[in-house]
Design brief:
heterodimer, A: 335 residues, alpha/beta, 6-stranded mixed β-sheet, 4-stranded antiparallel β-sheet, 14 strands, 42% helix, elongated, B: 258 residues, mainly alpha, 75% helix
Chain lengths: 335, 258
């Protein structure tokens, strides 16, 4: 009953693995996405997000495990999978020698959308991304944000059941990013299309996604709604910068109310209930031990804190490491 | 190996894409005509009155040269058309094509159709210029026969271009291909001179060059002079172009798109 299963889950992934030679880019991940759901893969560069998208969109072969998109197996029913999905790649995939409209028409014909419906859809998607007045301009004259909007529009022409957005706001300025977010929200409110989005921007995942999977070194570390993930830390986060972080961490770990104490980059973060009342206590402990506290801040946990909590690193630490890994991966693939 | 279906819409739209890009790039059209025009003009100044051994009276060197120059145009434009897959990969557009629900063989056929058409347009322009250089085509049938050879020649080199494009990862190797593949093929084909004049051993290498048969066949059709019987030219070129486009499609299918 493939069809029915497809009805229940837009995407179903079981122990999906991809190896490039000896390097494991995606390491046995499992998750599922419901129709109409916006699911985020959050993690640093090189964590295996794009590799996952490439496997789900049939561009890369699966090493082991199983993946179904709209009820179709990505290894066995490539044609059906391709018909059911729209993809916005991380790097632009437009023909810059054609106009915006021609790129859309080209796509519509390739996906077998009949002429009348095609015209209508093109009108609709152009309206959605507000590019009606630029449709007859060659894409080479488009800005980065316009290109990305056109790609999102293009991914929607054939009414896909699943839309992949791989780092949709990478390299865009803050204002354009906001705009793209609005389009994605609008898109989500309009239909039953399942959206799977990859990003390494914490606030993007937080703002847009119904559910988030934090992925690192090819593995899903934790998965849930952004709210649940943040609450799972238990209360507020107090971070302090001190001269002797290690020593203070040791002292704070002895406290009963400190749910977790993590150290990174010469500062420390403590999770606790009612953080505002505990700050004086922390400072007192530090003073007694003769440790100078340079600064303290209190905030409600963000996905960034969730990431730090479960991986023990900031995403920025990961970034440097991640780009090495990405380069390594590209090297492997070149052979 | 290939998905079974052939999507005509895909072939059409890829063909249309090539046409739009071709019409828009005026410099490409002009550029593709400058080299043949220079060859014809200066060779006719230099060697115009030379006679070709074994040619019927009235056929001079320039008329002999014209099919060779058309062959040269097809050699360059078709090989590069095959190689443009690389540019699509470079600019990411290949992914958009590869993720579409269409068979890989349709993608190759669409590209081939586009490249053959642009190649033919260029060949016709050269042919039109050639009328200035006293080319007289015997009849419609001869012209049609020449077109058949043009199509087969273009197909063979598109296939070769596709094979190289599938094996290379970036366009850095373009110059290498021009110097070590295209130019040797051009000189070996007898486009510029009668093959009879080549030393025996080199003649044998010429037999391995698809362009030899393309140029020889066009010569037979257009000016009635040929080194080999025209049916041999046709048969060899038919087999070679079929094989090359098959191999090109095969390697394209196998190559990774990301």
């Amino acid at each position: 009953m493939k069809f029915q299963r497809g009805f229940m889950d837009a995407i179903k992934v079981e122990k999906l693995t991809k190896k490039f030679g000896k390097f494991t880019a995606v390491d046995g991940i499992s998750f599922s996405v419901k129709p109409g759901e916006l699911f985020g893969l959050l993690g640093p560069n090189g964590a295996g997000k794009t590799t996952t998208i490439n496997m789900l969109s049939t561009l890369l072969n699966v090493t082991s495990g199983k993946a179904e998109v709209a009820g179709f197996d990505v290894a066995k029913n490539r044609g059906d999978v391709r018909k059911s999905i729209g993809v916005v790649f991380q790097d632009p995939a437009l023909d810059s020698n054609l106009t915006g409209r021609e790129n859309l028409e080209f796509h519509g014909i390739m996906y077998g959308v009949p002429k009348k419906e095609r015209e209508e859809r093109i009108r609709e998607v152009l309206r959605l991304v507000e590019l009606e007045d630029k449709q007859k301009v060659l894409v080479e004259k488009y800005s980065g944000g316009m290109k990305r909007r056109l790609e999102i529009a293009r991914g929607l022409i054939h009414k896909p059941k699943v839309l992949f957005l791989d780092e949709p706001t990478l390299g865009l300025d803050a204002q354009t990013r906001r705009h793209i977010w609005d389009y994605i929200k609008k898109l989500k409110s309009e239909g039953s299309v399942a959206i799977i989005l990859t990003t390494h921007y914490m606030e993007e995942a937080d703002y847009l996604c119904d559910r988030v999977a934090i992925i690192d070194h090819g593995k899903i570390i934790i998965m849930g709604t952004p709210e649940k993930l943040k609450h799972s830390l238990g209360g507020d986060v107090v971070c302090a910068e001190t001269a002797e972080t290690t020593k203070l961490v040791r002292l704070l770990k002895k406290l009963k109310w400190a749910k977790s104490v993590k150290q990174y980059d010469g500062s420390l973060c403590v999770t606790m209930e009612h953080g505002e009342k505990r700050i004086p206590e922390i400072i007192l402990i530090a003073q007694k031990a003769g440790i100078k506290v340079n600064s303290v801040n209190l905030h409600e946990p963000s996905l960034e804190d969730v990431f730090i909590h479960y991986t023990g690193k900031t995403i920025r630490d990961q970034e440097a490491e991640g780009s090495d890994r990405a380069r390594f991966m590209r090297m492997r693939m070149r052979r | 190996m290939f998905m079974k279906t052939i999507n005509f819409a895909t072939i059409y739209v890829l063909w249309l894409r090539e046409m739009k890009k071709f019409v828009r790039s005026k410099s490409r059209i002009v550029g593709s005509l400058v080299t043949p025009l220079l060859f014809l003009t200066f060779f006719s100044f230099g060697f115009g009155s030379l006679s070709i051994p074994g040619a019927p009276p009235g056929v001079n060197y320039i008329q002999f040269l014209i099919p060779g120059i058309i062959g040269m145009g097809l050699l360059f434009s078709s090989t590069f058309a095959g190689l443009t897959v690389l540019l699509d990969r470079q600019f990411g557009f290949l992914k958009e094509i590869m993720v579409a629900p269409v068979s890989r063989v349709s993608i190759v056929l669409g590209r081939t159709a586009g490249a053959i058409t642009t190649g033919l347009i260029q060949a016709f322009l050269i042919l039109a210029i050639s009328l200035v250089f006293q080319l007289r085509i015997a009849g419609v049938l001869n012209l049609l026969l020449a077109i058949v050879f043009m199509i087969l020649t273009a197909t063979a080199f598109i296939g070769i271009g596709l094979i190289f494009a599938s094996k290379m990862k970036d366009p850095q190797g373009f110059n290498l291909i021009v110097n070590f593949l295209i130019f040797p093929l051009f000189f070996l084909s007898g486009a510029l001179f009668p093959l009879q004049n080549l030393p025996g051993a080199v003649q044998y290498i010429s037999y391995a060059d698809p362009l030899t048969y393309g140029v020889d066949g066009m010569r037979a059709a257009l000016i009635g002079v040929s080194f080999l019987p025209i049916w041999i030219d046709f048969a060899v070129l038919l087999v070679v172009s079929g094989l090359m486009i098959f191999l090109g499609a095969y390697f394209f299918e196998k190559s990774e798109s990301v």
